[in-house]
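Quick start: what a row looks like.
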Amino acid sequence: MFRSIVLVALASAGLFCADGARATTARTFVSISGSDANTAVNCAPTTPCRTFAAALGVTSSGGEIVVLSSGGYGPVTIGQSVSITAPDGIYAGISVAAGAGITVATAGVSVALKGLTINGTGGTYGIYMTNGSALTVVNCVIAGFGNSAAADAGIYVKAGIEARLINVLVRDNFNGIYLDGGAVSTIAQSQVLGNLGTGIVVANTNTGGSSVTIAYLSDTLVNGNAAGVTASGSSSTATGYAYASNVVASGNTDSGFEATANGTLVAGNCVAMNNGQYGLLNSGGVIDSAGNNTASGNGLGAVSGITATGGISY
């Protein structure tokens, strides 16, 4: 009887449900001076938690975790819809020695990340998403992930989700951004720099069925990678499409824009400059110039394997 009275009192204070399960709240907080023991009081602004993982446990599905002070907050696996937000002027870091910084693998969840810095010191992926409904990444930095595995990347998405990557800096990973498995993505106002593999991969490695990975790229710089932007597919029905507008692919070791087997790349108002091989290369797929493209100063030539070269300035 005493236990029941205590639980009812805690429930009335908003700390526990009457059945003993912990209550959640729409907005929780983390701070460098916080404590994960503060999950008992739902990581309130006056009693924040220390890590994202702890705060997530008392955040309602669809709720928000807010960073109050600069510091490191640890890797986290996200199994519910949530936003994680660091306001302007606050450094919110995740350092990863192995595995992924942020993992999302739960059906139906929508995750939004704003203002985070995710650094790899041996990790494989900065953001790793293999299930869900949507991923939004705004004003984030992802650096230092992967080694030589083909799909290691700063941002890796292999799921039929909607991904929105806006004003992100993805640098010094193996691949920069790797999109696969039917994802439909928007990449805008971003910088993809100095990655050892490909800056932006739009692929479909599914071997059965019919699915299309699509990326809409705009106002983005892809510089200093091994290759710039590539589109590929595993079959004629499992394909990758990249649509690039106002994208600059420059200083990459290989080609700026490339379509390989079963991939399609459409470029308009783009610049391919000073790449080691070609500005635009078709090596088994389709490249379409939508007009007003510039290919200049590339090591082996402006274009290769393209049957229609209209709208390209050399």
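That is the whole record. The domain at 62-313 is CATH 2.160.20.10 (Pectate Lyase C-like). The chain is about 5% helix and 50% strand.
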